[in-house]
Amino acid sequence: MRYISTRGGMAPLPFCETVLMGLAPDGGLLLPERYPQIDRAMLDAWRGLGYAELAFEIIRLFADDIPADDLKGIVARAYRAETFGSEAITPVKRLHDGLAILELSNGPTLAFKDMAMQFLGQLFEYVLEKRGETLNILGATSGDTGSAAEYAMRGKRGIQVFMLSPDGKMSAFQRAQMYSLQDGNIHNIAIQGMFDDCQDIVKAVQNDHAFKAKHKIGTVNSINWARVVAQVVYYFHGYFRATASNDEKASFCVPSGNFGNVCAGHVARQMGLPIERLIVATNENDVLDEFFRTGRYAPRGSERTYVTSSPSMDISKASNFERFVFDLVGRDGETVKRLWAEVDAGGGFQLDAETMSRVRDAFGFVSGKSAHADRIATIRQVDAEDGVVVDTHTADGIKVARELRREGETVVCLETALPAKFAETIREALDRYPPRPAGFEALESLPQRVVTLPADAGQVKALIEKTQAKKNRLPREPVSFWAK
Question: What's the confidence (pLDDT) of residue 473?
Fold first, then answer.
């Protein structure tokens, strides 16, 4: 299995050569030359597997350059009951109307990002040790990626994490999860702007090839293909637990901002998992919903991105969308390069009606949107009818799933986080605060350390260089450049 760029300018590489890469040298995203195909016999054999066993069977199809015993060890360390609270790892619960909720938020940071980050932490450490190298991870978060990455990477040998987040745009819980970490290899940087500004900085640094090589820059954002591969696993696991047999089909409704979560569902469907439809749910930042309804993809820029009560989806530029469009246009890298040149120039692109019919008929995508009043109403309804409290993003998914669900259709909504992370909005909906898991009671009162910078890639690069210089001078002492 070898990997290519969505923009066509990279020679095929094996899996382990891509793990530390981030963006391809031509600015594109990595995808396998072909998706591995699964058949009915494989589905039948996998239905009864535990999560780690299933992860091994799926990931080894993409990572065939990692010896089987090594990969088994990686996934066994990543997916433990002690980390995720139960042997099920991702249980399924049913609401009264039959809608299924795939629980993805039982990990250490209470968000679905843990599902990939726990794997990525083990994988990075394995690859770096084999190669005798170190890595500086530069990431961007709209709320949950940052804490999941930092908890997965804290204390890992040879790894430093520089995490960008939009200053003041996350919930108090999300900020405290990240900024309260005291580990010497974790560096939080609040960017004066929106998530899109943070993501643009990550891409700018990735595209500075000299800086990237000198400082060994990698990424944990979903532009990293290994993270998407890890997310493919829970689509299979969710399908097996939401259906009685492999004769059935299921649809998945996915709250979407950066398109990484639902992109993993697209990959699973292309592999042969019996997915009927992929339902994309957006919040007020509805660029993706606009595309799936009209064929127009036009990111609006940070100045026109709304700050909402489902903040992890406050994204205008959906990075992983490029992977889907690559498949949609027949894996033509030149076409993708041309389309994204239009996006990068501040515009967008319009696909024709024939192409959009393939989006629905060949790839199974549909979409809907949810606004603040919708999510408040959904949180109240689910609490009243099912005694279940859901977070704001999951509420967006439930609202859209109920709106678009066909008669007799099995729909699995992907839970994105636990409601404790968005307590003020839950209190607005239910007139009470959500339950808070043990160990998080006084999170917001812990000391926090973070440095604030303007949305300037040059200043971020300077901070990385300064941190690295001090680390090289004082290799045995913790590194810190935190502002009070």
Answer: 62
- What is the pLDDT, as a whole number, of residue 301? 77
Count CB neighbours of 411 within 10 A.
24
Q: Minimal CA–CA distance to 221: which of 110, 109, 142? A: 142
Give the model's pLDDT for residue 484. 25
**DSSP conformational letter for 419:** G
pLDDT attached to residue 481: 27
Q: Are 271 and 35 in contact (CB under 8 A)?
A: yes
Which residues make beta-bridge pairs with 191? 166, 453
Q: Return the number of other C-beta atoms located less than 10 Å from residue 16's C-beta.
A: 17
Residues with Cβ within 8 Å of 21's Cβ and at least 6 positions away in sequence, in order, are 13, 30, 218, 224
Q: CA angle 390-165-156, nearest 5°?
A: 90
**Digit-coded pLDDT (tens) for 174-199:** 999 999 999 999 999 999 999 999 99
Task: Identify the segments of the chain with pLDDT beneath 50.
Answer: 474-484
pLDDT at 206: 93
pTM above 0.90, yes or no: yes
Given 3-state DSSP classes, what are the helix, strand and coil percentages for the chain, each rounded to the nearest 5?
45, 15, 40
Task: Confirm whether 113 is a catalytic residue.
Answer: yes
The angle formed by the CA atoms of residues 237, 238 and 244, to the nearest 5 degrees, is: 95
In single-letter form, the type of residue at position 403 comes to: E
Of 113, 203, 212, 369, which one is the catalytic site residue?
113
Residue 92: its H or E element: strand 92-94
| Burial class of residue 76, CB neighbours in 10 A (0-12, 13-18, 19+) | middle
Q: Cα(176)–Cα(172) distance, rounded to whole angstroms?
A: 6
* 156 close to 78: Cβ distance less than 8 angstroms: no
**Burial letters for 77-100: b for 16+ Cβ neighbours within 10 Å, e otherwise?**
bbbeeebbeeeebbbbeebeeebb
What local confidence, expressed as pLDDT, does residue 281 receive? 98
